[in-house]
Amino acid sequence: DQQVKQNSPSLSVQEGRISILNCDYTNSMFDYFLWYKKYPAEGPTFLISISSIKDKNEDGRFTVFLNKSAKHLSLHIVPSQPGDSAVYFCAASETSGANSKLTFGKGITLSVRP
Amino acid sequence: DTAVSQTPKYLVTQMGNDKSIKCEQNLGHDTMYWYKQDSKKFLKIMFSYNNKELIINETVPNRFSPKSPDKAHLNLHINSLELGDSAVYFCASSQDTINQPQHFGDGTRLSIL
Q1: Which of B7, B24, B41 would best serve as a mutation to test chain A binding (most A beta carbons within 10 A)?
Q2: A51 and chain B: CB distance < 8 Å anywhere?
Q3: Mind listing the pLDDT tens digit for each residue in A55-87?
Q4: Residue B102 contacts residue B33 (beta carbons within 8 Å)
Q5: CA nearest neighbour of B98 among B59, B69, B56, B66
């Protein structure tokens, strides 16, 4: 049972435009969310995170929005650059226990066209 | 000066063999993890160690045995390899166990013939 869902397998955008990557989750206990970026033959690289006490977190060109009532988060990249082309993973964890673990989505392949 | 390094990068072996994958982090982190990325591309946690102590052990066959000689190293030994073990295995580390980003190695692609 997938608790973190990235329903769109791929997204293609023009350089300079906004990329919006979506993620849905089913576990209402999740309270910490992260986005990772992955290039081929490399490990995932941490991009940005958000705690459930916030609804927005921004870091340069990257902004994550969290809608707890809808159990939905999104990553906005603006302006998109060709170097942003990669697979983006959404991940979530719950911190109620002593040891939180990350649950990952399947990933979205972003292609930014020059 | 790679932060999380794992070796080997590629591992091709026969069914039934025993193999090990090594992982080292130089970030001074207390917690280390092993993940498996299967053919469906999901990254799933297998194990987590905090200060050399096992804290997460997901439903993984006991043919998989992690070993943490110190908090900078977490190795994965796999006995009696099966076809279904073919996957990419990622090591990761984080400062502690709660709400901290995890830093990943580049993965070990294991192929069972």
Answers
A1: B41
A2: yes
A3: 999 999 999 999 999 999 999 999 999 999 999
A4: yes
A5: B56
